[in-house]
Amino acid sequence: MTLKVAVAGTGYFSQFHLDAWRRLPQVRLVAACSLDPASLVEAAARYLIPRQYADVGEMLDAVTPDLLDIAAPPAAHLTILREAAARRVDVICQKPLGGDLATAQQMVRLARDAGITFVVHENFRFMPWYREARRLLETGALGDAYSVSFRLRPGDGQGATAYLDRQPYFQSMPRLLIHETAIHLIDVFRYLLGEVGGVFARLRRLNPQIAGEDAGYVLFDFESGAAGLFDGNRLVDFPADNPRLTMGEMLLEGSDATLRLDGFGRLWLKPHNSEEREHAYESRNDGFGGDCVHALQRHVVAHLLQGAPLENAGEAYLRNLEIEEAIYRSAQSGRWLDCRNPGAPGGLP
Fold first, then answer.
1. What's the whole-model pTM score?
2. Could you state, in order of their start, the residue ranges of all structural domains in the chain?
3. Which CATH class name applies to 3-121+300-312?
4. Facing residues of 33 across strands?
5. What phi-psi label fits residue 127: left (phi over 0), alpha (psi between -120 and 50 degrees) or beta?
6. Residue 96, preceding bond cis, omega within 30 degrees?
7. 11-34 pLDDT, tens digit each
8. Across residues 232-247, what is the average pLDDT?
């Protein structure tokens, strides 16, 4: 079987979507749509997209795809989803989903009422180092999980030209570090250690040229009893040939061993009371982030064509956005927030 895929949006990150679709043998990329004629023409030529449109509805009627990939800006997500839902076309949608929690909830309801599959393009959990970390946890190689920490250090946020070369809209986003970037790590933390019970956050803006926060700390309490720390600073870099490969460094600690991710995508395993050694595993350097976009889209194709289990369904993803809201509330109030009831502050358990 072949899955016909159409793409809405030809901005910066769409290149990774389009490249991944072209490399999936069960996919036929049938059309693309954009309000930017220049980027649309360039994308069509580069990725051999046979038909191009300026209107989503017109594209969907003309090519009748099985799946619509929404890679457009968040403000357009709901409108584009409406067009797909009206035609019963399944959708995978880029994050930040709809731009805010209320819009994301509306999108999930719309997709559910239309009876379509709705997936969030949350690709970080498909990075090969996180898949391997999850495997090691499940096999008991680390023992009981104690904590996870991540130091985000992409080094792209300094000065008046911060972000302008790739995603210039970052400068005007009222919420940046958590909403745009740490949302990935919220999902990764939950993927590795389970449900979050509470959070405490301190956020700040270091670069006066931007509107939102670009540094901060977030403490996580997991329902399992484990702890988490997100330490983000977009102005500072770290040892890496390509800081955007891993975006930072992770430490995952357990009763029997500690696992460390470095900026080169290498994993280092240190059994308790033993020397640290490099842990060999299968990884790639194609595409973005260890080819995580390809891995995610392959996963979605397997679900749609073979009925394989699905991660990142829209309704399940809303939990990440609820935790994001709790983080911003905590930073504003200076209090610990119980994520099981985000509106009710409480002390550390």
1. 0.95
2. 3-121+300-312, 125-281+320-338
3. alpha beta
4. 8, 53
5. beta
6. yes
7. 999 999 999 999 999 999 999 999
8. 96
